[in-house]
Design a protein that fits this description.
The protein is an alpha/beta fold. 51% of the residues lie in helices and 12% in strands. It is built from 16 helices and eight strands. The strands form two sheets. It has a five-stranded mixed sheet with strand order 6-5-4-7-8. The longest helix is centred in the first third of the chain and has 24 residues. The chain starts with a helix and ends in a 5-residue tail after the last helix.
């Protein structure tokens, strides 16, 4: 799945919705009607794939706040990071809700304005994701900020000289892009490894887009939604006032309940992560296709100052009296296909890597996963301890894998856990399960099942399903 295929499917859906709209009430403007359906459907799709896993978006927002903190105002960003989960729920619910309001034509100007602001906000995030690969200058930041502010103000004063205002905002935006493409507006050339955030999380874990793909996508959407902003008067409601009220109430409840359910009550009902049930973790840790990297050496001509990269074979032709060594560069000839899981390393208390041993175990293996034992639900360990005792008697393996915070032994005594506690990095543990703690069941590296701590299985259920054979 690519961003182009997503746009194709959403475009077809919008075409069908536009045709359906013809039979309900012929629209005043076909272009506005189609864009209304296209943007609305895209927002609903984008919101839904994130609504089934709001914690994934929360972790991504936390990553952005950490990156922003490096730029300045650290206390502010660190404080906002503590609110990343409520903010992700609010953002996703708004994306779903206003995608639906746009489809049915509820309060056109208000709905389009919120959609416009949300898209500009996403553009800022994706722009930062991509452009952090450059050394951004103050000039570029100033021009970009001015352009965004002017564009954001368009819906608010659309009745006052809207043509001139839009022209000015467009010129500022074009100017920002011009300076972006001019190398002198940056302190250095683009380097992918310099990007502060490598994935915007625009579609959650459903699809991972390259930073430049997400940025260009949002710029394209900005253009489409700007047309809606200017043509909002041609958007009409599909239903009567009573039906619209009922529909909007339903949309608000649905948006909120879906997000809250998948944050506080259960695992994602649709799992797009590499650790989903049925996946073989051991296989997903293997590199599909190795990258092809060529080692080059940069030398500078002492007379002209010109720098040139040479391969290992070309070094023999150099006159070392005329050049001086600058640096070594690795040139990626083919990025290959990396492993889908590349950051999972489970270590014992002696620092030994036991990941392969756990993933190759032929018997059932239960893993209690806790990304942060300082914030875990301690009451859940009463049920987990009972499961551990029954699992051990049945011949299954039972471990806990937590982030190493230096107090694992104290915590084990506190919750009366007698099984081994191993440790791993916080990032893969958060990806494994959206629960703290959560329970993962493996067999020969395959994810057999996983449970949120609010829905842990009983010992009797496990005996019927998993403990019947060793």
């Amino acid at each position: 799945m690519t961003v182009y295929s997503i746009f194709t499917y959403v475009g077809i859906a919008a075409l069908l919705l536009t045709a359906l709209r013809f039979w309900i009430a012929r629209p005043q403007n076909w272009l506005i009607c189609y864009l209304q359906n296209f943007i609305g459907a895209l927002f609903i799709f984008s919101g839904f794939v994130k609504a089934v896993d709001p914690l994934g978006t929360s972790y991504k927002m936390h990553e952005y706040f950490e990156a922003f903190a490096q730029e300045g105002f650290r206390p502010m960003w660190e404080y906002l990071a503590t609110w990343s989960t409520p903010m992700s729920i609010l953002m996703i619910a708004a994306e779903l809700f206003f995608g639906f309001t746009l489809l049915i034509g509820w309060l056109p100007r208000f709905s389009v304005t919120i959609v416009w602001w949300l898209t500009l906000f996403f553009t800022i995030l994706t722009g930062y994701t991509y452009l952090s690969g450059y050394c951004i200058t103050t000039l570029f930041v100033a021009l970009s900020t001015a352009a965004v502010v002017m564009l954001a103000a368009v819906p608010l004063i659309s009745k006052v000289n809207i043509k001139n205002l839009t022209l000015l905002a467009g010129l500022l935006f074009v100017a920002a892009l011009f300076f972006w493409f001019k190398s002198e507006s940056f302190g250095c050339a683009f380097t992918e490894t310099k990007m502060k955030v490598t994935d915007c999380g625009c579609f959650g874990d459903f699809i991972k887009l390259k930073p430049w793909e997400t940025f260009y996508k949002d710029v394209f959407l900005d253009v489409l939604i700007l047309i809606l902003v200017l043509g909002y008067k041609d958007i009409t409601s599909v239903f009567s006032k009573a039906k619209v009220t009922f529909a909007m109430t339903g949309a608000a409840l649905f948006s909120s309940i879906v997000c809250l359910y998948h944050v506080y009550w259960n695992e994602p009902s649709i799992d797009f992560r590499p650790y989903k049930v049925g996946n073989n973790i051991a296989e997903l840790r293997k590199e599909v296709k190795p990258a092809v990297i060529e080692m080059t050496f940069v030398y500078k001509n002492k007379k002209t100052g010109e720098q040139k990269a040479y391969t290992m074979n070309e070094l023999t032709s150099l006159n070392y009296d005329e050049v001086e060594f600058v640096e070594r560069k690795d040139v990626v000839k083919d990025p290959g296909i990396p492993a889908k899981i590349s950051n999972l390393f489970i270590e014992d208390n002696e620092g030994q890597n036991i990941t392969d041993a756990i993933l190759s175990e032929p018997r059932y293996t239960f893993l209690v996963v806790s990304p942060n034992i300082g914030k875990t639900n301690e009451e859940a360990f009463k049920a987990l301890n009972a499961i551990a005792e029954a699992a051990t008697k049945s011949g299954a393996k039972f471990y806990a894998v937590v982030r190493n915070e230096g107090n694992m032994e104290q915590f084990k005594k506190k919750v009366n856990a007698t099984y081994p506690f191993y440790h791993a990095d916080e990032t893969p543990l958060k990806t494994m399960i959206r629960s703290n703690p959560g329970l993962l069941l493996l067999k020969e590296g395959v994810v057999v099942n996983k449970w949120h701590y609010r829905h842990l299985p009983t010992v009797e259920e496990l005996k019927k399903t998993y403990f019947t054979s060793k």
